[in-house]
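lol ok so funny story. i was supposed to be doing the assay writeup but got distracted and ended up predicting the structure for this chain instead. priorities right. anyway since i did it might as well share w the group, maybe its usefull for someone
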Amino acid sequence: MKPFNKIGALLGAVAITLPLTLASCGKSEEKADPADLGTLTIMLPLIGGSGTAPAPDGEIHKAVEAFTGKKLEITWIPNANYGDRMNVTLASDNLPEVMVSQGKLPAFVQSAEAGAFWDLTNKLDSYPNLKAANKQIERNSSINGKVYGVFRGRDPMRAAVIVREDWLTKLGLKMPETVDDLYNVAKAFTENDPDGNGKKDTYGLIIPKWPAGYGSASPYDVVETWFGAPNGWGERNGKLVPGFDTEEFLAANRYMKKMITEGLVNPDYATFDSGKWEQPFFQGKGGIIVDVSSRGPSLLKLFKEKDAANYDSYVDLTGNLKGPDGKLRAFPTTGYNGFLAISKQSVPTEAELDDVLNVLNKLSSKEGQILLNNGIEGRNFTVQDGFAIGKPQDDPAVKTMTSDVSYFGQLGTATAGYQAYVGLPPGKAERAMYEKRLKFHKADEASAVHNPAQMIISKTQVAKGAQLDLIVSDARIKYFAGQIDEAGLKAEIKRWYDQGGQDIVNEMNEQYAKIKK
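and the output, tada:
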């Protein structure tokens, strides 16, 4: 499992997320001879670090070359321009041997299905460090059932319920385990003066305006999954259906509407800036957040700055909640963040493909992951109790290495599992929270509700899906606000079908039937 977000007091030296940023030198417009795999050409996004691409003669670059036995010729592209540059590269006859695709972008999908990249569907299991530890994630990263890249792993579970622990203590409540518990805690936080100021000026659940449409991991999507609705799409009677066209979706939204109508949710939920999500929790206005678990340590840090002596008493968190039927249905991530694709033009033979895959396999070993994600032990980090501690940045060479490592994680995959070091938590409370997160994430995996349509590319979905899904998410907010009733919500779902959704359903099921054969 990939580790979580950076823990503050690490001197900025060692990332504790699974960095998705690697590799090596500056821009290189001339590609090496495709047959000469003594040099490996790579195209990577430039994300994080100091803003300066790693130099080809830098310590980390040279260390990766020594470790792989290959000269690395890496073209670094600023992340903001990466999508455009990838499209230009795909249209050219000068593809690097390995390139990052940050997702299933239309140009990449078209190129892959046209034969521009190696189909790795039946190949990766032969490489122990590239063999997916979680086959569902590999399926999620596939394109219509075929694997065109080595996925870059991320946490398969992140969903969490974060609660004001001091409010629970004040009211004699326990952490919620079910959606009914969540409602009861939210009601108590609203009505029973959890901050003890004698005023009714608090509320339970804090929800911001969500910037994307249906199926974009909003708190509403998470709650719907807890109620038994499909995660985006689900199989019903052998056919794929959108999650919002189910009774469970309606039941979940009746639940949310009840909470909103009773004032258990911040009244500005439809307009509240998601960038300020933590403020009501920290300021004592609201007491519950449904989000990713990494928000827990972020809040803990805020309370530590405010009350260092008692900061461990303000924040608690747990994983996914059981639905009204007592069954746990956990909301997962896709489990990956892009993938490494191998060009058939630049790597034309099976023997050369094996050579490239062996390099990626070596970089995905424990030693390779440590090099890409932590650096060089003794130079820019040390190890204590199995955790990494970044060295001080007053040495310019160490500072440069730290920056380069933050980039080189882009070449890491952790397909078979993350094995590099996690940054040392700065205190007992942080370490306890880290271990708790690991525990409930792992437990929730067994109950994950995966989206079976994740692997399928529908042309209409690509062209119109984002706009169509806004019909549903906008209708959901109008329903909560009382602007439409449940019949109106159903009418908007029908409008989704009428304006192109039915084409998406047809295309999804046509492709799904082929994959299932």
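The longest strand covers residues 39-46. Confidence is low (pLDDT under 50) at residues 1-35.
back to the writeup now i swear
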